[in-house]
Specification:
single chain, 8 helices, 3-stranded antiparallel beta sheet, alpha/beta
Length: 250
């Protein structure tokens, strides 16, 4: 027999690191994407085109651009600056996030295709864009959500402050899926032992930001600040025989 089935809606949460994905995955109503490059865009496309998806949020840590921001600073994006222009975040959603986290700042965030390493480049970007922080996921998420007229928000915690140079060894510390790569870091340190103090500082900053990120999500609650609801799969009629889904299931 043919039946129309109600599906729970979800929020797409886009992250770049495995620990961010674990934190986000604890939130009810979240579908988490933690991939890079073409795989990330393909996964995001599938999720954003799903009729059950009612919004996307960029979530995780960021690099500071404003030298006045210490590690652990909590940012809710007012807009995301991309190479294709500025994308405003959803005002009501952002206000909900700000109300849940009173110490958060509402400010522009910059999206970049690579990690910003040098303090001088961070300073230059702050002066030219006005963005307080930078990450490598928000611009992609913002543009893809805008194309589909979906609500978009961004929540970021500053990890490395603007004055700190990101050591090259830290860039060897990730697998493509965002998981830590300790062997890569050790190999890089063998080649650049002088970077050990800077790497330890980055690790300490990241740990602080990670704890702050977990606390922020606890304050926000389920559905990343959007109220839960159910929507009918109005464009998908699923043929069901008994308990078995035969075709058309997402």
């Amino acid at each position: 027999m043919a039946a129309m089935i109600l599906f729970h809606s979800f929020i797409l949460v886009v992250v770049g690191l495995a620990f961010e994905a674990r934190i986000a995955g604890s939130c009810k109503g979240a579908s988490v994407c933690c991939r890079r490059g073409g795989e990330a865009e393909a996964a995001m496309t599938r999720a954003l085109d799903d009729p059950r998806c009612r919004g996307a949020i960029s979530f995780g840590i960021a690099g500071g651009l404003d030298h006045a921001l210490p590690t652990g600073s909590h940012l809710i994006a007012s807009e995301v600056i991309t190479s294709a222009g500025t994308v405003a975040t959803d005002l009501r959603w952002s206000q909900t996030l700000l109300a849940a986290c009173p110490t958060a700042r509402h400010a522009p965030i910059l999206g970049a295709d690579h990690v910003i390493i040098e303090p001088q480049e961070k300073r230059d970007l702050f002066e030219t864009t006005g963005a307080l922080a930078v990450d490598t996921e928000s611009h992609i998420t913002a543009l893809m959500a805008k194309e589909r007229n979906l609500r978009f928000a961004a929540l970021r915690i500053v990890a490395d402050p603007a004055h700190r140079k990101v050591p090259q060894a830290a860039m060897s510390g990730l697998h493509p899926d965002g998981r830590a790569n300790p062997r890569g870091v050790l190999g890089a340190l063998l080649r650049r032992p002088h970077e050990t103090p800077a790497l330890l500082a980055i690790a300490r900053d990241t740990w602080r930001a990670r704890r702050r990120l977990s606390s922020a999500l606890m304050m926000i609650g389920d559905d990343f600040g959007l109220p839960p609801r159910e929507i009918p799969a109005a464009t998908t009629v699923i043929e069901v025989t008994g308990d078995e889904v035969l075709a058309g299931a997402p």
